[in-house]
Design a protein that fits this description.
- 34% of the residues lie in helices and 14% in strands.
- It is built from four helices and five strands, in the order αβββαβαβα.
- The protein has a domain of 81 residues: Nucleotidyltransferase, domain 5.
Length: 146
Amino acid sequence: MRPRRRPAFAAPADPALMKDLNTTPLIDVMLVLLVMFIMVIPMQLNQIPLELPGNGAVTNESPIHRLDIAANGVILWDGAAVAEASLPARFAALAHDPAAPLLQIAADGAARYELFSRTLSSARKAGITRLGMVGNERFPPMLDAR
């Protein structure tokens, strides 16, 4: 007499409890968090340390130079268009001017941040210490509307 064969899909006669932890969902959550950190950390590290003046009026009569960054990428130095490559030389001359001129930067809200960041970095490398941001008062109403 032949022994009876059990079908392949049948459950074993005495089912034992699984003692192993299913780690697949834990690994999935860990990978999602890892991807999120990889995307967020570079944004937090993109900083240019600058010492900006407080909210006070300029007391001395030093010359003021204005640098405008337009939405289309055009850079204006005191109203005249200049190339981005010429900015480091202008910043160096401004930093070593004995009259201690003030540099005011006005960036259009639609201007590329990359250009603005390169400009600030170039000013910092040249040693500009008197720097002001112009026109930022128009942005808080737009941020409050969100």
